């Protein structure tokens, strides 16, 4: 398994419609045994990277670097847009995405959030949005720079903010460890600021979609789908052994999952030409079961249209581990048709966590186990936001990265 496949396992991946326990059994995962470890001192929460990275870039981001000043959000909607017509949301998005100009750099800034319940009971808790992000400039040759963003964690709603202030407005908020260790972790309500820059090379781009390869992708939806189905990777995120194969070899939900992940990359982080991005929107519109819903606000407060994917469950996985969730989730996209832009991908609670499951020992050799009482969404209800990735900026620009 190479770095791209390994880091892909750290993302929230689309899964088959089955319970986490059935999934653990299907991939032949077996937990270790041992007695409970003693209570450990709380530690800062280690969050997963949402964007696929590879090679030395991933190692540098893990190590950290000097902070820089975060830039401001990008421009608003383009001047010439096609009016939204009911029933063709993705086609309108495609038309407007195709109008976008090319530039010297593909500039993206994304913020990812995991929603944590803080408190001891369903009657007395508040929610915190634990955030991190990336900002990147990728040139037409695939080289560029990226910065790791560590903004403050924030109360999810105004009501949650009131409860946080009533609890003392603590900078470090203690929550149960969701990764299975016996102990607690901290949410940082102040953040540490951006770090970087770190170099980007063509080998760091998701799914091997270098600019040269992106330029060669078809701009007709069916032809684009056929080309993407030939992409090779370890698409079975839940098998015991890695196996590279084309998406075309998959069937049913697994094929939809893999094709959806690549499509999301084309609509967000990949430096795809406007015509390819437009074709990706049209391809998505043609997929069976993809459904447009009503208007809503994304996690950053921007208005968009909900696009539901024909999948019943999402399962966040850790590196070489069994599923680390005890509930089930649905996934939806939020699209701004007028801007031709994917605003966000978000996972909603379908069934709250319940029960428990042992896990293999951690790096310290101590046994671990999952328990519903420690899950971030332990007090959530069906339909509540569990996690998200919002694309604050995703556009071609001639402006070089900051020096």
Automatic annotation (TrEMBL):
It comes from the Bacteria. Residues 132-152, 352-383 are annotated as: Disordered. InterPro entries: CU044_5270-like. This is CU044_5270 family protein.
């Amino acid at each position: 398994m190479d770095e791209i496949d390994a880091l892909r396992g750290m993302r929230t991946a689309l899964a088959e419609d089955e319970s986490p326990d059935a999934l653990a059994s299907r991939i032949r995962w077996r937990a270790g045994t041992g007695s409970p470890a003693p209570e450990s001192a709380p530690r800062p929460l280690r969050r997963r990277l949402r964007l696929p990275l590879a090679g030395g870039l991933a190692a540098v981001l893990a190590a950290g670097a000097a902070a820089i000043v975060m830039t401001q959000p990008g421009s608003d909607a383009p001047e010439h847009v096609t009016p939204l017509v009911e029933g063709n949301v993705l086609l309108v998005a495609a038309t407007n995405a195709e109008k976008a100009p090319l530039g010297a750099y593909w500039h993206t800034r994304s913020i990812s959030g995991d929603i944590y319940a803080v408190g001891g009971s369903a009657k007395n808790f508040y929610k915190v949005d634990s955030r991190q992000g990336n900002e990147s400039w990728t040139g037409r040759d695939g080289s560029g720079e990226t910065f790791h963003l560590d903004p403050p964690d924030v109360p999810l709603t105004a009501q949650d903010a009131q409860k946080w202030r009533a609890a003392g407005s603590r900078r470090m908020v203690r929550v149960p460890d969701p990764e299975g260790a016996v102990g607690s972790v901290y949410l940082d309500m102040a953040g540490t600021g951006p770090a970087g820059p770190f170099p980007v090379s063509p080998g760091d781009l998701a799914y091997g979609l270098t600019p040269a390869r992106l330029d060669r992708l078809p701009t007709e939806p069916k032809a684009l789908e056929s080309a993407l189905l030939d992409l090779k990777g370890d698409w079975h995120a839940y098998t015991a052994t890695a196996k590279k194969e084309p998406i075309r070899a998959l069937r049913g939900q697994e094929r939809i999952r893999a094709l959806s992940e690549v499509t999301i990359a084309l609509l967000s982080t990949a430096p795809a030409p406007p015509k390819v991005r437009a074709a990706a929107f049209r391809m998505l519109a043609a997929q069976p079961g993809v459904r447009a819903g009503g208007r809503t606000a994304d996690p950053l407060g921007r208005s968009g249209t909900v696009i539901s994917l024909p999948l019943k469950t999402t399962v966040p996985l850790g590196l070489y581990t069994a599923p680390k969730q005890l509930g089930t989730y649905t996934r939806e996209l939020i699209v701004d048709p007028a801007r031709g832009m994917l605003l966000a991908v978000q996972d909603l609670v379908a069934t709250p966590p319940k029960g428990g499951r042992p896990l293999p020992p951690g790096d310290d050799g101590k046994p671990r186990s999952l328990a519903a009482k420690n899950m971030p969404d332990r007090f959530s209800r069906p339909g509540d936001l569990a996690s998200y990735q919002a694309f604050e900026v995703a556009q071609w620009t001639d402006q070089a990265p900051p020096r």
